[in-house]
Structures are given as C-alpha cells and as structure tokens.
Design goal:
alpha+beta; four-stranded antiparallel sheet; 23 helices
C-alpha cells in the first residue's frame, strides 16, 4: 500500500504512474475532489481540485465528513473584511508547507520539542503574527522581531500581574462574598494549587472558577504553613477573609485537615470513594486480592513485551492514587480476554491467565461501575455537584448489599466496601441541605425517617437566619441531628410557629415542598432556580450560594498535563513564574 509521503513524491516528480480522475458518486463532496489512481489501481487518497491537498479517503472507513469539512473551508468565499497579502496568490502552498514541515521536523528533533507543538493554538497565533508583520513591513529577518528569553520572562510577570488585578477588581466590587475553595498538594512535588469557585449572579447565574496560585512550597507542608499560604494568596487578590464566607474542599491529608480545622471544611468525596474501595481491596477476600495482583502482572507483561498492539484496545494498569483504575484495568482485561488467551498461547505464557475467571472479573466490573459513574458525575465542574453527594452515597450503599445468588467472594467484598464507605465518607449539614434544594430530591426519600428530614430543614433555617446578620456567616458542619418523628413535611413547620405567624422562609418552604415539578437536570439546576428567584428569594439565594461549593478537588486533574511538563525542568528558575502565569491566563478565560 502506497503511503501519503510516497504519493506526494510521485506527484512532485510528475510521474506518469499517477493519474487523477473526477471522483464519482452521489455525495456533494465528490464534485470538488479527484480520485487518485496509481499504476492503474485506485488508492485510498483523494486530491482537492482547488488547493491540491491530499486527503485520506476510504468510504468504508472514513466516510465523507472529512471531505465535506475541507470543502466548506477551502471553497468558502473570502471574508470581504480580510486583507489580501500583497504577495499572496491563488495557487496552493503545497511546496511551502512541505519545506515548513522539514524545518519544524529539524527543530523538534534537534531541540527535543514535542511534535504536537504545531497543533497548539498558541503556535498558530505566533505564526500568524509573523505573517501579519511580513504583510505590513515586507520581507524582514526573523531576528529583527524575535525577542530574548529575558524579555519573555519579564512579560510573563507583567501578564500575570495584569490578570491578577483584573480578578481582584472582580472580587473587590462587593458583589462576590461567598466562595468555594479547593486546594491540593501535587503528588510527588512541592507545589500547592488553590482554586476559587463562585457564582456570578448578575443576570443569569453562572458558575465561575479561577486558579489563584500554583505555588512552590519550601520546607515542610504543615497545616500552619498551608493556612498561611491561603491567607497570603487571598491578600494578593484583595479578597478580605473577614468579609467573605468560604467553604474549603480538600482530600484527607492530615496537614490540610489540621490547617483548616477552624474553617468550614469538606472532604473531597471522590477521594473518600477511592479510599473506601482501596481499603476494601486491601482487606477483602483473598480470591479478589489474587485476581487484582494477577491482573496487574498480566498488564505489566503485555506492556513490557510489546504485545499491546496486538489487542483491539489497550490494557490499563491500576494505580492506587488514581480513581477507578481497578475498574478500568479489570474492564480492559474482560474486553480483551479471548485475544489475551490466544496471544499467551502463542507465546507459551498461558500460566499468566491460569486462575483468572473472566466471568468473575465481569461481576466485579459490574459492581464497580456505579462507583466510576459517581466519581465522574461528582467531578463535574459545569454544574452544581454538592446536591448529588447524599443521593449517590445512599445509592452506593444500596449497591453494596450482597445477593444470595452471587459468588461468596463478591458478597464478602461488597460487605467490606459498605463498611469502608460508611467509615471513609464524611457528610455534613451542607450536603443534606444542598440535596434538599435540588427539586428532584426535595423529599429526601433516601433518608429512613421523617426526623432526619426534619433535621435537614432545621439546619437550613438556622443557616438562612445567619444570612440576615451582618458579618461572617458561621456554617456548622456537624452531622444532621435526629428529631422526633413527624407525620408530614408540612408538620415540620408547625413545630416552630403557628401557620398565621409563619415567616417568609417558612412560607417559601411550604410552597416548595407542596409544589410538583418535572425532571430537573443537573446542568439546568441554576437556570431552574433563577426562574423561581422572585417567588422564593431566600431559597434561591441559598441554592445559588451552595452551587459555588465543589465536592471534589479539581486543580491537579484539570491542569496536571502542562504542569507536569514544566515540573520536569529541574533547576529552571522561572518555572514558578511560568506556572503562575499559565494558571492565570488559562483560568481567567473561565470568568469572562
């Protein structure tokens, strides 16, 4: 089969072996492309009639979507406002692109740069800037306009300072005083990342977030050091702690728990789920431990022996610090089990799957799937997740109930997971109140008794009352207290005061509970409450504030790739400035 590179060489040499013929077919894309025939046989390429670009095309594999996209881009009329370069001509840039590819290949190879750099939007902007300069100034030497590394370093600091001031003005206008804050120390590094979350309530409520710092921590990472870093970071952005209310979300690290012991603090629910499963795997039945260990060894062997390429999908390795990796590992083995057995038989390594029962592995995968879905949904950053913690917690507890027809090892494993889930999960009043403020869960049917539901509404009333007092709102994070059983949700309010003297909040609660609503999706929760803001203003304010709270630490997960590349440059004095500016520039896009 001829490659694209070989075909381009033949075309460049104007070889008689290559013939172009109008592509035949009913698709509207075909009239703009020529079929390519080499040695009297069609090949899996077509050529654009306008720009002469070669595109891979196989109707059975690729369809015509790529051709249609290229046609729309190549044959679209030019924007009248777009300036025409004085030296630009209608002919294609095939030769120029080939020479440019050679230069980039030399640069990436000699300076050890990633090939993917050419796909970066920033690289495209720099290239476009050079083209624009050439169009305006004519032929110039690149050395005349390229700046030094020191100049770039100074501009890094300047850009970071400008963005910091813009965000400070966002917080300093008095409209934002209720924040969720997530922070985490990066694994195997000395960096801490602090991300702030809030609701921009002007007009339609919108969830916003901003990475305040990615900072190198020198010395020990104690709780006191952590709290001081938080305060110093807030000061840089003119966030006044005494005038604002914060709920911090972290993992279960003792230094973070200690440093935030005097603050409103929630544990990252996804870390709790991961710890519960990890603890259950460690203390579970011996059969399951052997299954996991053999699976890890099997994946390691396939990677080490270079056998992955012979599978339809790659095998995944488990990592204790990465969520759901046991699920992904077992799932990848189950999906490829027949091919794995066949390959091992060829390699005379069948001993590596002896003792692995694919049906039992499939049962474990099915049991772990709800945990994977829970952590995925609770890790979302584009809709409120705090209301989902309690429903998912009780749903997972229900999933852990053993069934009589299940294998003994799975029943024992479920019992261990249930025990660990109760032990490792930390729920507070905020979780229950947030769930109540989601119209899909307002009945709190996952709670066993009406007294528990009553306790949630009591906690909501106390919290709402504190909002009417000037100053900082003190949020208690104790478990929801148990109250005596009452008959209906309406009776809860009668315990506090007579119906005729009921407060505005009580009236809002009554109407909220008695009203029936259609399904409300997680993505539309803020919009839903916005529609009821005039009728239930107090409940609306609570719901909007609670939407700012996260339940999972997102900083490292969302930005780890570029940060990891930077952290590999040991001894680079500008690494912290680069990281800080990276977070400033990228995350600032999220608030404008």
């Amino acid at each position: 089969m001829i490659t694209k590179e070989d075909l381009q060489i033949l075309i460049k040499q104007k070889s008689e072996r290559v013939v172009f013929k109008q592509k035949e077919g009913t698709s509207p894309a075909y009239q703009h492309f020529n079929a390519v025939i080499v040695d009297d046989s069609p090949v899996s390429f077509v050529q654009c009639q306008k720009c002469k670009l070669l595109l891979v095309f196989d109707i059975k594999k690729t369809g015509t979507k790529t051709l249609l996209n290229h046609k729309d881009k190549c044959f679209s009329s030019r924007n009248p406002s777009q300036k025409t370069l004085p030296f630009a001509k209608s002919e294609s840039f095939v030769n120029e692109k080939s020479k440019l590819a050679d230069e980039i290949a030399k640069w990436c190879s000699t300076d050890l740069r990633a090939f993917e750099i050419v796909d970066d939007s920033g690289f495209e902007k720099v290239a476009q800037f050079f083209i624009d300069v050439g169009a305006k100034k004519g032929h110039v030497s690149a050395k005349e306009i390229l700046c030094s590394a020191r100049t770039v370093s100074r501009h890094v600091e300047k850009l970071a300072a400008e963005k910091r001031l813009e965000l400070a003005s966002e917080f300093g206008n008095g409209n934002q005083n209720f924040f969720g804050v997530t922070l985490d120390y990066w694994t195997n590094t000395m960096y801490i990342t602090i991300t702030i979350h809030f609701i921009k309530s002007e007009g339609k409520p919108q969830m916003k977030k901003f990475v305040l710092c990615a900072q190198l921590v020198e010395g020990t990472k104690t709780g006191l050091v952590t709290r001081n870093i938080i305060s110093e970071t807030f000061q840089k952005f003119q966030i006044q702690e005494n005038l604002c209310d914060f709920v911090f979300v972290t993992d279960n690290g003792s230094n973070l728990v200690s440093g935030l012991r005097n603050d409103s603090h929630l544990r990252c629910i996804c870390h709790c789920l991961n710890l519960a499963l990890q603890n259950a795997f460690n203390n579970g039945p011996v059969y399951l431990k052997r299954m996991i260990e053999m699976s890890k060894n099997l994946v390691a062997y396939f990677k080490r022996a270079g056998l992955q390429k012979r599978l339809r999908t790659s095998l995944k390795q488990q990592c204790d610090t990465r969520w759901n990796t046991a699920f992904f590992m077992l799932q990848s083995i189950v999906e490829n089990f027949a091919d794995i057995s066949s390959i091992l038989a060829t390699e005379k390594e069948t001993c590596r799957v002896e003792g692995l029962n694919s049906e039992n592995m499939k049962l474990v995968v099915e049991f772990l799937h709800p945990f994977k879905k829970a952590s995925t949904d609770l890790s979302a950053s584009d809709y409120p997740t705090l209301p989902l913690v309690v429903p998912y917690y009780y749903k997972l507890l229900q999933t852990c109930k053993p069934q009589d027809d299940e294998p003994y090892f799975l029943q024992e494993f479920k019992k261990e997971v249930q025990k660990s889930l109760v032990d490792k999960t930390h729920l507070s009043d905020l979780h229950y109140i947030a769930t109540f403020l989601h119209p899909s869960f307002k009945e709190l049917n996952m709670l066993e008794t009406q007294s528990e539901r009553s306790g949630t509404i009591d906690s909501l009333k106390k919290l709402a009352k504190s909002y009417s007092v000037e100053g900082t709102v003190e949020i208690t994070l104790e478990p929801c207290p148990k109250k005596r059983k009452v008959d209906t949700a309406f009776d809860i309010f009668q315990e506090h005061e007579d119906t005729q003297n009921r407060s505005t909040l009580d009236a809002e609660l009554q109407y909220y509970l008695e009203s029936s609503f259609g399904p409300v999706g997680h993505h539309s929760l803020l919009a839903w409450w916005s529609g009821w803001s005039t009728r239930w203003p107090q409940l609306y304010n609570l719901a909007v504030h609670f939407s700012a709270f996260r339940v999972q630490v997102p900083s490292l997960n969302e930005f780890s790739a570029p940060a990891a590349k930077s952290s590999q440059s040991e001894g680079n004095e500008t690494i912290q400035k680069l990281l800080m500016t990276f977070f400033s520039l990228i995350s600032f896009k999220l608030i404008i």
